[in-house]
Specification:
Elements (H helix, E strand, L loop, with lengths): L11 E11 L3 E10 L3 E5 L10 E6 L8 E9 L3 E6 L3
Antiparallel strand pairs: 1-2, 1-4, 2-3, 3-6, 4-5, 5-6
């Protein structure tokens, strides 16, 4: 059984500003709480997305950072949401 603590990749605690593009094309700058090889967790005090939504994420820490497509896989109401990159 997979649980929230039974993960494929180790999480790395790191705070960074992330540009998030939701559909239909609304853009937000959110703080990342942690990340792994397969995804990341974004802090969001309000419900901006729902499970299953596709979003695009891009770090604002480097110029010309790649834009990655991800799927919302978990939401913690009032705290944020987790996304998994499409390649995983």
């Amino acid at each position: 059984m997979n649980t929230i603590n039974d993960r494929r990749h180790a999480r790395i605690k790191h705070t960074a500003s992330i540009k998030v593009l939701t559909h239909p094309e609304k853009s937000y700058v959110l703080e990342m709480r942690d990340f792994s090889d397969s995804g990341l967790y974004l802090q969001a005090p309000e419900n901006l997305v729902k499970v299953g939504d596709t979003v695009e994420v891009q770090t604002l820490e480097m110029d010309d950072a790649p834009v990655l497509v991800a799927k919302v896989i978990r939401i913690i109401k009032g705290k944020g949401f987790a996304v998994e990159f499409d390649d995983f």
